[in-house]
Amino acid sequence: SAGCSVIKTEPKASIPLDNRSILTTLKTRYDLVNTMRTLVNFKMESRGKKDEVRGILNYEKPEKMSVYGMGPFNEPKVIALVVEQTLQIYFVAENELIKGELTDDVLKRIFDIDLRISDIRSAIFANPFLDGNISDLKLDNYQDEYVISRKSKDENYREEITILAKGTVVDKWKIINSQGEMIQEITFSKYREVGGVLRPLKATIYRPFDNTRISIESVNPEINIKLSKTTFELPIPEDAKIYRLSEIKKNGEINLQ
Predict the structure, then answer these.
(1) Which run of H or E residues covers position 27?
(2) What is the pTM of this model?
(3) DSSP secondary structure letters along 34-81
């Protein structure tokens, strides 16, 4: 099954990391990033469908994010704005706005893309522990990598987080069901120092059950730059059609074409 793990060599003694030192290193990196701006390439493959979106992502702590999805001539096609628990998505050519409360499955509801908001946040920071689920962690050491196991917030699942000893970076984050089958894996790669903070430029989310693979690649990221107030404002034309998120059914009905 997809959950079978590769047989690994015997654990080897070296100057060991422990849970606390790993969590501290990852949290310090998170704490050092207050703002970020980057070009992003989203690639999505799901059930035989392929999509690619280029855009600009801006982020500011605690919870502000704007994403400008661009067309082939760098014209903005869709603008998404998250401020705390509210979401607005504006379709430029259609002059339509969707607004409502931010939920984890909102992208599935609007675009039928099975990408959770929490996945994007975790991918931005390459830190699976931002959800605060750190009370019961088991650590195994295999030569040049560590595996931290924990129960998921959904009690029936467990998670395995692989940390590379070199650089103390998150390599893989797997979610495994009660039958031992992997239901999701996020792989972090292309680590670079950006503004003195080690970050992955690429995160790939893979879900074998619906054969979905989503990659988020960052190009020329900048951190801790001053973002203008207007970065997180969305000027909407007065004649825009406005829909509430609550009006949209699970399958994205209200045709937004």
Answers:
(1) helix 19-32
(2) 0.82
(3) SEEEEEEEEEEEETTEEEEEEEEEEEETTTEEEEEEE-TTS-EEEEEE
